[in-house]
Structure formats: C-alpha cells, structure tokens
Amino acid sequence: MPSASRARRPLRSALFIAAACSTPVATGAAPSLLCTVSASGERYVVRAIANVSPYSAPAIPIGDRFLFRAVFQPAPRRPDAIRLYVYRADADAAPRLLHEAVFASPPGAARSGIDLIGRHLVYEGELGRALEYSCRVVAVSFDGAAR
Question: What integer pLDDT is reported at residue 15 of this predicted model?
Fold first, then answer.
C-alpha cells in the first residue's frame, strides 16, 4: 500500500516526440496519442506525437519495474495505427515484452478526444506488480497545448 506522502505526489509526465510530426490538420494542430499510465501508486502521462517509423518511438520507464512504448502512425484506413507495448524492466537482462495491443485510429477521434481503448491492466506474475493504462487521441497545437 502506498504511503501517504507517495499518494500526494503530483502526476508525473513523460513527454516524447518520436519523430517528425505528420501533416497538421486544417485547424493548425497535429494528432497526438495521450496515455495515462499507473503503476506502484504513481501516475504518468505519456504523449506520442505521430511518427513515421515505429522503431523511433522510445520505451518510457514507468517506475522501476516497467517500460511503456506507444507507437502512433495515423493514416486513413490503417488497421495498426496505434501500437502499445508494456515491457518488464530488468536491470540484469534485456527488457521482456509482457503486453502488445494494436488498434485502428477511428475517424474523427482527434476532434472528440474520446478514450479509444478503455482501461488495460497488465499483471506481471513473477514480480506481483501491475500496470494500468488508457489512451486517447487528441489534437495538439503547435504551442504544445492539447485540444
């Protein structure tokens, strides 16, 4: 159970820009994937800007037990526009894939900011730890503000 001081920690933010942004939409904003990730009593916000190569998206440390990687490649009718990965972080070995989820980006999702995938819970049995996440597509203006 988290201590009282841990429960009062502010929401941590991990911002990454994996590669060049895709062509901005007519409103002057580019789509971005915004994920809220929780593990060990701490919450993180991970933002993935649309990228060209799935290999350029970094894995973000979530606490000291997990890595979270979001690949966002919006394109019309692309069935794998969103790929989400959770890895077990191990100091003695290479990260181990625990979870992979693949989603299509529905038309108009950037305008509505709806939760695309619901909440996912990934449980790592050897460690007895869990990670929970949910994501939504948002439009991000060139000044960095989510719309």
Answer: 37
